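hiii so um. not sure if this is the right channel but i have a protein structure encoded as tokens and i wanna go backwards to a sequence. like what aa goes where. can anyone help
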């Protein structure tokens, strides 16, 4: 406080006011040193004080330390001796979310991590409050349903030990808020609000934490005048360190998220504020209002469909139960047109409002509609969608878009969100409809909330690039991409659904186009001929094409398994033996036969196939729980270059069951996952992306952009995207230009490069078509992606 900073005195204390006090007390009446000085001062016989003059740090004299510097040290010090330090411009208000987020109610969400304050004063305040939390959270929500599980994630903190921290806010099955805090003594304490939060209405949730007191407020209405408020007081001390972990908005691998939409989310790290002091308006207000109106309209559509289908089904059941049958009635029931109901007494206004819906219902056969109400509504939506797509697939299909839009809207309302994605693409690109960015965003978000795969990828891509009026937000992009990426390996092993293998086929590559085939094509017929003659390579290629739906061949697992079996049992080819063993283990399209599968797996491994060596490790891990033997086979397979084995070894370390190694070792697990990811392993890639987004491992420094790139890579292998790309390619090969352009636009909007390139090729090859279907005569899209830099 006396001398100026120099080489020896660092960070000289800056003092603004100094008060020197003096007092005299009786020896036996107040001089006890254990008594506080304020009490001594109160009983003093005489007392006085004076203000000392303080000197600013840069006006203080230098102290003579009587030390000689080496010339280089003295020179370096003189360079910075007169530099006045400045506090970094920083405050404690953080915008966690600035754009609407569609939460599908699944195990994916937005991950946010905070560094320490750069400003020393703010950082000192934060450290002082680690055991006395003072902060505020304000967020907007639109809920479609209450939690369908025990708890659903809204906003919660996960610490460095992967445990819930302070705060953790969840939604319950009854619609209450479950607020959980981590105590200083290491335990957790939770409380549930007395009030429930509203459904299908935008509201702002404000939570103010001040030591042991929490004030929770939900506000609705145009001016936020309608509110519920509850004050919760605790006698325990909470532990709160928002830099020792990460926040999650929505779902994660620990808990599913809410079903609905998140609006703007603000976090005041060092202040406990009253709702009136919080500035957190509902941004994108027009879009938020459109979301509310969409669900209000859809409630009417679903009610109409439910009443109509139940009425028709009741009429059919009465006819079937009638004892007075005749031959004419039997023939009518068997061969006549499906039942229709034209006499339901809906109001004229409602009929006029939903004209396309009533038209579709009257033209639709409803005999085979499921009895369950929600399933029947979804089924009707699917039928309306298929009818619209059939019209779009005609010779001049793109010119039919405006006429099918009403049917797609009704299908979307019925929960069939492929229709939502079509609408989003039509409106955002202006594909033969007036370009409407607001409507495009609406249907993109609705599709994303419904977990429609292409919609989620579209949202992920737009937020990754920050284009088409979507905010540049890598954490938000990761939330959408990871939702589809985690489903991709599951989709690949699902035999049902419209899926195809995602192949990189460019329309300008004539050599690749020549080998595309179908079940009656020359390439396929030649392979089939060679496979019948016993050619092992032909049998394996034919089986792969049929199993995965590759090279233009429709997915046919049953036929693929026949070729796997034939090749395995006749040709002794190790790859075919291994493939057939996996099919028998998993029972994919064939009855499980573990004994034969193990025999075949050992046979393939004995021939030196590294996949089979890994498969033996999988067998001992899954069925025998013999981790020592599993690790032995996996270590051997990894030496042979098998990425699956690297991933499996990582799982052993992650679960803490690696033989001879006590406890979990996430660092070693991460190293094995990274090695597997480098070899193209999907699950290994997903683990690496998770480590990059959370930054909870030292070996994986937080890098949201890299996390997005890795999850995008996996999501773009999804079979449902592959099916759309394949339909575009088949249409192109058949000369169906309208259909080819339609499917390539749908695929290109997800951000996959090959489809964007192929769409550009079609537009160059048929500029007349592009001019006739895109608004203003050109695709209003940013292809190729614009370059971005780190913020």
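sure thing!! here u go:
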């Amino acid at each position: 406080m006396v001398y100026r900073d120099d080489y020896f005195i660092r960070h000289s204390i800056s003092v603004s006011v100094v008060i020197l006090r003096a007092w005299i007390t009786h020896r036996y009446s107040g001089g006890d040193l254990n008594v506080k000085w304020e009490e001594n001062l109160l009983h003093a016989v005489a007392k006085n004080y004076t203000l000392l003059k303080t000197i600013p740090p840069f006006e203080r004299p230098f102290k003579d330390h009587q030390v000689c510097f080496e010339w280089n040290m003295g020179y370096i010090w003189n360079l910075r001796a007169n530099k006045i330090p400045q506090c970094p411009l920083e405050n404690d208000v953080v915008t966690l979310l600035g754009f609407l987020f569609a939460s599908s109610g699944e195990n994916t969400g937005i991950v946010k991590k905070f560094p320490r304050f750069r400003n020393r004063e703010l950082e000192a305040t934060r450290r002082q409050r680690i055991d006395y939390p003072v902060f505020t959270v304000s967020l907007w929500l639109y809920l479609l349903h209450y939690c369908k599980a025990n708890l659903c994630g809204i906003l919660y903190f996960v610490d460095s030990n992967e445990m819930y921290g302070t705060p953790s806010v969840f939604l319950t099955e009854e619609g209450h808020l479950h607020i959980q805090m981590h105590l200083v003594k290491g335990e957790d304490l939770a409380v549930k609000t007395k009030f429930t939060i509203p459904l299908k209405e935008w509201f702002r949730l404000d939570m103010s934490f001040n030591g042991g007191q929490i004030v929770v407020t939900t506000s609705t209405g145009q001016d936020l005048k309608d509110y519920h408020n509850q004050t919760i007081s605790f006698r325990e001390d909470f532990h709160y360190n928002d830099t020792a972990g990460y926040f999650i908005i929505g779902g994660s691998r620990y808990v599913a998220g809410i079903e609905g939409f998140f609006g703007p989310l603000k976090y005041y790290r060092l202040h406990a504020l009253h709702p009136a002091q919080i500035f957190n308006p509902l941004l994108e207000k027009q879009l938020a209002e459109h979301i509310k109106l969409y669900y209000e309209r859809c409630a009417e559509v679903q009610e109409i469909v439910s009443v109509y289908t139940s009425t028709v089904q009741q009429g059919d059941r009465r006819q079937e139960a009638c004892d007075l049958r005749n031959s004419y009635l039997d023939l009518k029931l068997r061969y006549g047109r499906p039942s229709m109901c034209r006499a339901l007494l809906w109001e004229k206004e409602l009929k006029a409002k939903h004209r396309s819906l009533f038209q579709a219902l009257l033209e639709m056969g409803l005999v085979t509609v499921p009895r369950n109400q929600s399933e029947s509504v979804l089924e009707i939506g699917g039928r309306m969608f298929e009818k619209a797509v059939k019209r779009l697939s005609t010779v001049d299909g793109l010119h039919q878009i405006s006429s099918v839009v009403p049917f797609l809207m009704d299908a979307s309302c019925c929960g069939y969100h492929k229709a939502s994605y079509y609408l989003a693409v039509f409106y955002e690109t202006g594909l033969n409809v007036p370009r409407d960015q607001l409507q495009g965003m609406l249907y993109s978000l609705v599709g994303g909330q419904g977990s429609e795969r292409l919609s989620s990828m579209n949202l992920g891509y737009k937020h990754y690039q920050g284009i088409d009026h979507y905010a540049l937000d890598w954490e938000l992009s990761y939330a959408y991409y990871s939702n589809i990426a985690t489903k991709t390996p599951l989709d690949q092993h699902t035999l049902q659904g419209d899926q195809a293998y995602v192949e990189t086929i460019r329309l300008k590559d004539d050599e690749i186009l020549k080998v595309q085939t179908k079940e009656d094509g020359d390439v396929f017929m030649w392979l089939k001929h060679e496979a019948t003659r016993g050619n092992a390579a032909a049998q394996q290629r034919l089986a792969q094409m049929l199993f995965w739906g590759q090279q233009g061949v429709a997915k046919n697992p049953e036929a693929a398994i026949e070729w796997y079996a034939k090749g395995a049992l006749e040709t002794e080819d190790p790859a075919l033996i291994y493939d057939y063993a996996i099919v028998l283990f998993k029972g994919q399209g064939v009855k499980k036969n573990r004994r034969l599968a193990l025999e075949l797996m050992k046979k393939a491994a004995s021939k030196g196939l590294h996949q089979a060596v890994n498969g033996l490790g999988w067998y001992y891990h899954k069925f025998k729980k013999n981790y020592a033997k599993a690790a032995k086979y996996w270590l051997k397979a990894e030496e042979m270059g098998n990425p699956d084995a690297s991933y499996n070894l990582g799982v052993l370390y992650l679960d803490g069951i690696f033989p001879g190694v006590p406890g979990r070792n996430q660092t070693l697990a991460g190293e094995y996952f990274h090695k597997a990811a480098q070899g193209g392993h999907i699950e290994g890639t997903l683990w690496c992306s998770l480590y990059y987004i959370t930054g909870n491992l030292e070996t994986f420094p937080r890098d949201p952009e890299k996390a997005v790139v890795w999850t995008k890579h996996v999501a773009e292998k999804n079979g449902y995207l592959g099916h759309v790309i394949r339909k575009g390619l088949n249409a192109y090969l058949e000369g169906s230009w309208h259909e080819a352009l339609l499917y390539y636009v749908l695929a290109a909007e997800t951000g996959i490069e090959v489809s964007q390139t192929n769409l550009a090729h079609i537009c160059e090859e048929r500029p007349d078509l592009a001019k006739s279907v895109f608004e203003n005569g050109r695709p209003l899209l940013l292809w190729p992606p614009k370059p971005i830099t780190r913020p």
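oh and DSSP finds 29 helices and 15 strands in the chain.
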